[in-house]
Amino acid sequence: METLRHAGLTYPQYLVLLVLLEERKLSVGEICSRLVLDSGTVTPLLKRMEANGHVTRSRSKSDERIVVAELTEKGRRLGSVASRARKEVVRRLNMSDKEILRLRSELMEIAYRLAPN
Asked: Rounded to two decimals, what is the model's pTM?
């Protein structure tokens, strides 16, 4: 089975991939907000993903200050790898869906509380 490592993805890149698989095209700011990360963290991830052919980055037509990331066809094909990785994590956690959702909610709350305002 192909893993994230075999696909050339780090865990943080996997998180960006998951967000872009949901929306297809997002600004760097929107990605940062969803992952509770700053642009200084997300931008280098996107640059590496772009160098690997997984995303494209472009300026917004309505506001050139905004950089928009979009998955390429190669990036969209990683969706199956991401799905298998997610299933493997769930299997290893050995938790119910309800427990996982509660844990995720608690972790997100911690991340938001620790995020700079």
From this structure: 0.81
CA 87, CA 81: separation in Å to the nearest integer? 10
Which residues, 6 or more positions from 66, have their beta carbon under 8 angstroms from its beta carbon? Answer: 27, 28, 29, 59, 60
Residue type, position 45, single letter? L
Q: Give the up-direction half-sphere exposure of residue 91: CA atoms within 13 A in the CB hemisphere.
A: 6
Q: Is-contact 23 76, C-beta < 8 A? A: no
Q: Point out the least confidently predicted range of 37-46, 67-76, 107-116.
A: 107-116
Helix (H, G, I), strand (E, B) or coil at 59: strand
Domain assignment of residue 88, yes or no: yes
Number of domains present in the structure of the chain = 1
Count of beta carbons in the 10 Å neighbourhood of residue 15: 18
